[in-house]
Amino acid sequence: MNAKPLRLLLSCTLISWSAMAADITQLVAGMAGYESGASLEPLSRIEILVRQSVGKSGLRNDLEVELTKLITGNATYEAKRFACQQLAVVGSDRSLPAVGELLRHGETVGIACLALGTRPSAKAGAVLLEALSSLRGAARTQVVDTLGDRRDTPSVKRLADLARDPDLTTAEAAITALGKIADQPAIEAIARLRKEANPVLTRAVLDASLRVAESLAAAGNRKAVAALYEELGQPSQPLFVRRAAEAALRGIHQNGSNR
Predict the structure, then answer these.
(1) Count of other CB atoms within 10 angstroms of residue 147
(2) Nearest one of 254, 237, 247, 188 to 216, comparing CA atoms
(3) Are residues 84 and 114 in the same domain?
């Protein structure tokens, strides 16, 4: 291919990409006033572009830039919620400051968590962890839940502290999150909570312990699973827990003897 056709091809490609970027800007800006019950067509078109952006860094970047503008502007709550859902897919650390701003306000914490819940970024986890210090009530619980869903290991120490928070809802959420994370520090934190035997937190601690047992079993750590179930089978535990632990131990021993 000689130089002239090549320059023509590159020129057409740039024009086409520029037109698409302009379309994205207009499309995202046009949904800023979206409310529930309105036409879903603009949202559907953006969702299609998000799906098409896989492996296309330029398209993903353009989408992230425009969606970030939307959540920092005067868009409706519903529009910002939708934008955060899409940023969960196309978002990068570049949009973290804007999403972090949403975490500062109780009414938008939930939608910010939508953007960060599945993002594989250590910086995203750090933004969530930092937000815990300034949040209270339901907003803080939402962030705790998100850290657990992310299995955010750097947050274990903070979650272990929150597991003893005077606010029962916060404490229970932190214990649940530790059970989801289930790395060694989280397992040790839950073991300490079992020893403390706070009756108010019994159900949450037992549920987290069972989650840990499932994680250990999935990792093939039969010895640790058996030790945990033996502890849960002690007379100090509620009857339903002892029975479940005894049944699980029988299954472990039977499976071991069949090998």
Answers:
(1) 31
(2) 188
(3) yes
Task: State the helix-helix crossing angle for 57-72 and 77-90, rounded to 10 degrees.
Answer: 150
- Whether residues 167 and 103 fall in one domain: no
CA-CA distance, 231 to 61, in Å (whole number)? Answer: 51
Q: Are 150 and 125 in contact (CB under 8 A)?
A: yes
Tokens linked to 173: 């959420």
Cα-trace Rg, the chain: 24
**Residue-averaged pLDDT of the chain:** 88
| Residue-level pLDDT at 2 | 53
Q: Which two tokens stand for residue 30?
A: 């046009």
Residue 228 domain boundaries: 152-259
The string of pLDDT tens digits covering residues 6-60 is: 444 434 343 344 445 568 899 998 999 999 999 999 899 999 999 999 999 999 9
Q: Is the pLDDT of residue 236 over 90?
A: no
Cβ(99)–Cβ(84) below 8 Å: yes
Phi, psi at 258, each rounded to 5° = -85, -5
Q: Supply the pLDDT for residue 5.
A: 53
What are the structure tokens assigned to 186, written together? Answer: 């989280």
Q: What is the pLDDT of residues 59-77, one digit of tens each?
A: 999 999 999 999 999 999 9
* Domain tally, the chain: 2
Indicate if 242 and 141 belong to the same structural domain: no
Tell me the C-alpha to C-alpha distance, in Å, between residue 178 and each of 89, 198, 210. Answer: 25, 17, 12
44 found inside a domain: no
DSSP 3-state of 236 = coil
168: amino acid identity, one letter: L
pLDDT exceeds 90 at position 90: yes
